[in-house]
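To close the chapter, one final illustration. This time we ask the reader to focus less on the individual chains and more on the assembly as a whole: which components sit near each other, and how the overall shape emerges from the parts.
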Amino acid sequence: MFRVPATIAAIFLIAFGGAMLTAVYALKATIGFGSIAIGPWTAWPLAQTEQADPYAKAHRARAGQLLLGDAEGLVFVASSDSAGSRLSGNCDYVVSGRTPPARFWTLHTTGTDEALLQVDQSFPAAYHSQNVLKTQKGEFSIGVSGQPKPGNWLATGETSRPFKLVLTLFDTPTAGSSRLIELQMPEILREECRDG
Amino acid sequence: MGRLFYVVLSGIAGAALLHIIIILAIPAYAERDTWTKITALGPTEFFHLLPPNKPGGLTSANPFIRTAVCRFDITEEPVRVTASGLAYYWSLAIFDPGANEVYSMNDRTATDKKLDIAVVTPLQMIGYRKSLPETLADSVLIEFPGTTGYLVLRTVTPDSSWDLIVREFLSNALCQSADAY
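The assembled structure is written out below.
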């Protein structure tokens, strides 16, 4: 007797539940299409424009943040290392190499919730192009770890959870790059891991 | 068995359709989007200095960026934005209420590294093409497709010694209707 209503109820359940879950997942997992990926780094140069795809527009409406304009800068985010495994607070990493041309760049870490990691105030939790130690060739190497490192040390605090590295380039031609030159982004290499 | 298959298949088809509807509807129904947060800050034609690194706030977590935001309504009068003084770097972006970028610039693209722009509607632009008031003679006129929007002025603090300088730069920046000058 209840076969038809039960069938309809089941279809509705799958439809609404599935739609809700996939929408939330899609908005959490990505900022949309049209990204540029260089190694582990990803940027969305069109995310703040009218040409952004519906996913990017939904994402920015939900996040409600002020995005960097085209002439202001470009934000690259890495949530995995160069080998492709997720960045974990249990592991040490070395970010080395050089950035694409930019007047100023900054590097900081955030949790997966986009908030800064909890780091003791006296430890260096962020770097920029003027305070990082560079080699004579202009390359840098930053040790990302919860434990102190010699040279440039980017502290990740006590966290053992996954985190993200955020590289912001200010006044950079990267977004409009015609790819005539290969863009160079720093590599993220995993060193040893501690047992969480 | 055939019935179960039918239920799952139509469920998935419905889910796909609803997924698209949800994604397309979010920008219109989001309650904590940029425009709502900016409207909640206070009056138009005024630069609001935003606290850096406030969770759920308007700014990203970048510890070096300092941001000021000004909401404007140019239905009656265009808005003029000026800022000068020492800043390590500054950049400005103008957005419409849907958070779409309309215009952006930085200190290298400005004359003498001084910010002096006027945001005008296409209609006001026609008037200014005929006769430009003395006060706007040095301003860069930017045609804005709508009447309301917001602009974001950003600068960076490479270290804490810049904090005061940057704060001064941002609080001296003016965002007011063009005839107020």
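Strands of chain B lie at 47-50, 65-73, 79-83, 90-95, 101-106, 115-120, 140-143, 148-156, 174-177. Chain B has four helices and nine strands. With these observations in hand, you are ready for the problems at the end of the chapter.
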